[in-house]
Amino acid sequence: MKQQLQTMLALQDEINTLVNDNWREQNFAWYRAIWVESAELLDHYGWKWWKKQVPDMDQVKLELVDIWHFGLSLELQSGCPEEVAASMCQALKMRVCQPSDFRTDLETFTLNTLADKRFDLVGFAQLLADVNMSFDELYQRYVGKNVLNRFRQDNGYKTGTYVKNWGGREDNEHLAEISRQLDTSSPDYSDQVYRALEARYREITLR
């Protein structure tokens, strides 16, 4: 877990730096991003008692990964990836979460985030338990989405020239397909994902 945390923190540091060289000094409102994403997450899970709703679990997990991006950014405000990974690992190992009521746990997590303007790591671990999402799955999904975000930035996302749809399919779909074909335990997993995305993107867009 510690190695996976260190890898994810390093990747988050890289993508934040790609967007803004001095991101740590900017004091971005990461907690606010978590709050907004939490509302979107609840919509995907369902909360309306006056209509039939079935949780869209794939979208729920995608939103949790987006929240994890912002949570890692908050954690990185306190130190380098190696130091932060050690403290996060210790906090997670001290708390074993059992599945509970997802909506209530999400509200508690969001309230804690807004109150402290910090990442409620234990509360997030509870949300993972509620939707039966392992840490390994979080790692796989996070690395894939992080690499896709970096790929988008490298190919004109910030300037508005990047096109998300390749050959009639959104880039997220290509990412999911590519990720299933690779070994997530490989030390260069993130590099493999990037190279595979780049090769497919070039192949489709240059036809």
TrEMBL record:
UniProt-listed InterPro entries: dUTPase/dCTP_pyrophosphatase (IPR014871)
Domain of life: Bacteria
UniProt name for this protein: dUTP diphosphatase
Organism listed in the record: Microbulbifer thermotolerans
